[in-house]
Design brief:
Elements lengths: L8 E2 L6 E2 L3 E3 L8 H13 L4 E3 L13 H12 L8 E6 L11 H15 L4 E6 L8 H13 L3 E7 L3 H8 L8 E3 L8 H4 L2 H8 L2 E4 L7 H4 L4 H14 L3 H10 L6 E4 L4 H8 L8 H10 L6
Parallel strand pairs: 3-4, 3-10, 4-5, 5-6, 6-7, 7-8, 8-9, 9-10
Antiparallel strand pairs: 1-2
Helix pairs in contact: 1-2, 2-3, 3-4, 4-5, 9-10, 9-12
Length: 296
């Protein structure tokens, strides 16, 4: 954990190489194309070449699909920018259902994402939430068709349990590349519930959403013991508490990639400094203990 941070990480067994920190578009919608473009440019300057979005993003603001539409405007306004990013999006949430991974819906959802983004291919297409009423064989067939028709390059899942992931993978001809769980010092479940173990078992790259717990680990809205350890490590490393929290995610042996969703350029740059933080194994265990997880 004390070695120099890698400059790129591979997404599973795919040929997609990305920066060790990703930029997420959960709260991307609702600004101008110029502001959105500026944020993407800063993210790329910081080595965040994986841009992660979803068709549902923006539903609590401008509407379903609005984050993808805005990102599509950024691509349209800056020729060549698309080629600089590894583009990831997600589908499978149908408001009012709420989850639909049927072959018909996933094909329609992917086509709609392609139109909104204004691209010919999506680099990483992920099933956003498991559809408990869809047979994994049907989901696998639909995803396989998206790859074989050239609409997507690689496949992933989000918010899936290890058994849900394994059931889907058993029917896929194309191996999954990623799994996207919520992971932070305030949400350590993936360390214990088998999600990260399954990623390492199957050679998947974890993409950690909300690695700063919605900003709580930056603002100090956390258990006092955890804040104390974060602050002490931040002072030692000449970094911020948020950078230390991201470094913790980066230090996991699964090769997890934290997805940063801040909408402030200065915060994007701050997140990139996590790559300069060096945490020992003892540091990581001290953070886990301070977060409230009992150690044997």
């Amino acid at each position: 954990m004390t070695d120099a941070a890698p400059t790129t990480r591979r997404l599973g067994g795919s040929d997609l190489e990305v920066g060790p920190v990703a930029y997420g578009c959960w709260r991307f919608a609702g600004t101008s194309a110029a502001e959105a473009h500026a944020k993407i440019e800063v993210a790329l300057e910081c080595g965040m070449t994986l841009i992660d979005t979803a068709d549902i993003y923006g539903i609590d603001g401008p509407g379903f699909g609005s984050a993808e539409e805005l990102l599509g405007q950024v691509f349209a306004g800056s020729p060549g920018l698309r080629d600089q990013v590894v583009l990831a999006t997600k589908g499978g949430i149908d408001p009012g259902v709420p989850y639909d991974s049927s072959a018909t819906y996933l094909e329609r959802a992917c086509d709609a994402s392609l139109r909104r983004l204004g691209v010919d291919v999506i680099d990483l297409y992920q099933v956003h939430r498991p559809d408990l009423l869809a047979h994994p064989a049907e989901v696998a067939a639909a995803l396989g068709d998206l790859v074989s028709t050239g609409k997507v390059r690689a496949l992933g899942v989000s918010n899936h349990t290890p058994t849900q992931l394994a059931a889907l993978q058993a029917h896929l001809d194309v191996p999954l590349a990623t799994t996207q769980p919520e992971l932070s010092l305030l949400h350590l479940d993936p360390i214990d519930d088998g999600v990260l173990d399954a990623a390492m078992q199957h050679g998947l790259t974890p993409l950690a959403w909300s690695p700063l717990a919605g900003g709580r680990l930056m603002s100090g809205d956390a258990p006092s013991a955890l804040v104390e350890v974060l602050d002490a490590l931040a002072e030692r490393e000449g970094a911020t508490a948020g950078a230390v929290a991201l470094a913790f995610v980066l230090a996991h042996p699964s090769g997890a990639i934290p997805i940063v969703g801040t909408q402030r350029p200065e915060r994007i740059r701050e997140a990139a400094t996590a790559l300069d933080v060096r945490l020992s194994k003892a540091d990581c265990y001290s953070l886990i203990a301070a977060a409230g997880r009992a150690l044997p």
